[in-house]
Amino acid sequence: DLQICQHRAPTCCTKKMEESYQAAVRRERAQSIQALNFELKYMIVGHITAFQEAFESLLRFAENRTSSLFETAYRPMAKEAAEPVKELFTDISLYILGAETTVESAVLRFFDSLFPLVYSRLINPGITDLSEDYTECLRLTRQDINPFGHYSKNMVTELSKSLWASRMLSQALSLGIEVINSTEHAALSKECSRALVKMQYCPHCQGLTLIRPCVGYCLNVMRGCLASVAELDAQWREFISTLEYLTNEMAASHELETALAGIWSSINEAILHAQLNGPQLSATVDKVCGQPKQQEGNLSSASIVPVKEVTGTQTFVMAHTSLNNRRREFISYMKRSRTFYASIAERLCDGDLVMRDSSTCWNGEDVV
């Protein structure tokens, strides 16, 4: 009553044993594919982690640099500016990780929060009544009177160009893991599991426990079983090309590192621009929002302080070098995996499964 290992000679197998063999080949094939996938998956997961660590290091450096700017040059508003600065860098981090947000909304939200502080602490430091309504009016007015000139828009442009590739790379790496996981759990068809039993276990039914499949036979069976997985070849090659393009984009003129490191400078230029145009801004704000309460004697506008480069370049250079080296190592490895899905049958038939150094092997029907 054998269904798979039918043979003219006497046999030591039963139908129940055939069923056990089918369960065994399904389990073994899943384990074999997992073993093949492991190195590739480990490399991608490792790069995702390293990329995020280097990125977070750059982000912390840029945030500390920006906070130092307020503490050294704009002390009257440093304490209140801490929260908007923190929110800006949190938004940038979320954007990179694929959150439904934009660089533009993050930057403009920051400048919306910054304007009431610049106006009441630097341009008109005598203001005592900064009610919620007045603060909200200042926030809304920022969008119309553009107190920070072209610096806010320039910051959006620079960050958008450099962060886009980082965001895409982050999403592409996650997609790569999904693809690999889906191939591990691809179910074997009934025909495939029967073919694998015939190849690996039917010789046992004749007492031939040491004989192994012929190389060509193994390749035919594996290619048939993994046809659906091998179909990923063209898309996988395209995926590797996309990764290569994105890593090159990240290392190109609009570098992530340079853009993040320049945030403090853009904010400084924007604040200086607002201070220089203080009288015109005050006149417009008074018309739109009304005149707030002032301290007696109205303090003079805070003096404009030129800011020198904030220190901490060494940390930045280390994070920058780390990120560049990681990119190069990773893309070099991924390029070597271009043929991963095209050669999966060959790799499964390599090693212990087939007979390589013997004159006899199993062809599915007999020993040849």
Describe this structure in words.
One of its GO terms (cellular component) is plasma membrane. This is GPC5 protein. Pfam families: Glypican (PF01153). It is built from 14 helices and no strands. By secondary structure, it is mainly alpha-helical. The chain is rod-shaped.
Pick out its properties.
70% helix
Task: Produce a short descriptive summary.
It is a lipid-anchor; GPI-anchor. 70% of the residues lie in helices and 0% in strands.
Topology:
Blueprint: H1 15-73, H2 75-96, H3 103-123, H4 132-145, H5 151-184, H6 190-200, H7 215-225, H8 227-230, H9 233-251, H10 256-261, H11 263-276, H12 278-289, H13 313-336, H14 344-348
Helix pairs in contact: 1-2, 1-5, 1-6, 1-11, 1-13, 2-3, 3-4, 3-5, 4-12, 5-9, 5-11, 6-7, 9-13
Shape: rod-shaped
Number of helices, where a helix is a run of at least 4 consecutive DSSP H or I residues: 14
**What's the number of domains?**
1
Class derived from helix and strand content: mainly alpha
User: Mind telling me the C-alpha Rg?
Assistant: 33 Å
Uncertain residue segments: 296-302
Helix content: 55-70%
- In N-to-C order, the SSE pattern is HHHHHHHHHHHHHH
**Cα distance, first to last residue?**
26 Å
GO biological process, one term: positive regulation of canonical Wnt signaling pathway
Family: Belongs to the glypican family.
InterPro entries: Glypican, Glypican_CS
Membrane topology: Lipid-anchor; GPI-anchor
